[in-house]
Write a structure and sequence with these properties.
Number of helices: 10
Strand order of the largest sheet: 1-2-10-7-12-5-4-3
Radius of gyration: 19 Å
Low-confidence stretches: none
Bound molecules: 2-oxoglutaric acid, fe (ii) ion
Order of helices and strands: EHEHHEEHHHEEEEEEHEEEEHHH
Largest sheet: 8 strands, mixed
């Protein structure tokens, strides 16, 4: 069970303008939260309420489609297509849209799911994801600046694509808490999660306590993945997290994942390496790392990145 005593830091990113005094103040809060917890709750008012509400309506419509339709969403990258029907996490289903913000990708996904079209779905997810990618970029700019390695800003910002992944966790219909998603760290750069009012996400603190994450409908969870931990040479933390379900309502969530492009070697800038911070990871390709992580041997490892390319 998660602890009720600790809460994730909440940071307001609605009114930050690069170069302003507020930007600098907030940037330090962001860096501190991501070093300490690996995540925080972000207030961000740039996504209009009707779009946020419509997002849940279309997610419900998506997961209500017959399984054979959802299975059409295939990908050669692990965890990018349809995932579900697993004995270990029977409540969990997800659908991903790879490189979602490239022209036509959300439209193609929509046409695959609804051959007769569903403009409400494609327009809602497009608008939601575009707006949320601005939050991803604000956070990453703040981090790169705060690490003092601005000279890598453009390279870093251009080295990623976005995966949009939509999740449904069925209601367990029991008084017992059931596992919705097993404990893991994300493998990408930054993850931003938005969820309906059904809670269940839990984050592990560095000292081993599970925190119940209880965002409002106006807030987003920003989380560091292993690739950004590696890039920062261990300065940023990537937190273990899981989903635990209780009650009789389904949980829907949508995540925007910034992911290193295939072929791009993730490598900590030399400024991140010094006597106090010896190099932790050899340069690696994210897609090859994912293949390792999802292999039979990789799945059993708690610290897959360490095993894959730890120095
Ligand atoms: O549904 C959530 O809030 C968490 C999903 C998650 O951790 C993931 O997709 O990596
Ligand atoms: Fe995750």
């Amino acid at each position: 069970m998660g602890s009720e005593t600790i809460k994730l830091p909440t940071i307001d990113l609605s009114k930050v303008k690069q170069g302003s005094h507020t930007w600098d103040l907030v940037k330090n809060q962001v860096r501190k939260a991501l070093e300490e917890y690996g995540c925080f709750e972000a207030l961000y008012d740039k996504i209009p309420k009707p779009t946020r509400k419509a997002t849940f309506d279309v997610l419900k419509e998506l997961f209500d489609l017959p399984l054979e339709i959802k299975l059409k969403n295939r990908s050669n990258k692990p965890y990018h297509g349809y995932v579900g029907q697993h004995a270990l996490v029977p409540l969990y289903e997800s659908l991903g849209i790879d490189n979602a913000l490239a022209l036509g990708k959300i439209q193609n996904f929509t046409n695959l799911m609804w051959p007769n079209g569903n403009p409400t779905f494609s327009e809602t997810i497009q608008s939601f994801s575009e707006k949320l990618s601005e939050l991803d970029q604000i956070v990453r700019r703040m981090i790169v600046e705060s690490l003092g390695v601005e000279k890598y800003m453009d390279e870093h910002m251009e080295s990623t694509d976005y995966l949009v992944r939509m999740q449904k966790y069925d209601e367990p219909r029991s008084n017992e808490t059931k596992l919705g998603l097993t404990s893991h760290t994300d493998k990408n750069i930054v993850t931003i999660l938005y969820q309906n009012e059904v809670t269940g996400l839990e984050v592990l603190t560095k000292d081993g306590q599970w925190i119940n994450v209880e965002p409002s409908l106006d807030s987003f969870i920003v989380m560091i993945g292993d690739s950004f931990l590696a890039w920062s040479n261990g300065r940023l933390h990537s937190a273990f997290h899981r989903v635990m379900m209780t009650g009789n309502e389904a949980r829907y969530s949508i995540g925007l994942f910034s992911i290193p492009k295939a072929g791009y070697m993730i490598k900590a800038p030399e400024e991140m390496v010094d006597e106090e911070h010896p190099l932790l990871f050899k340069p690696f390709d994210h897609v090859e790392f994912l293949d390792f992580y999802y292999s039979e041997a990789g799945r059993k490892l708690q610290f897959a990145l360490q095993a894959y390319c730890g120095v």
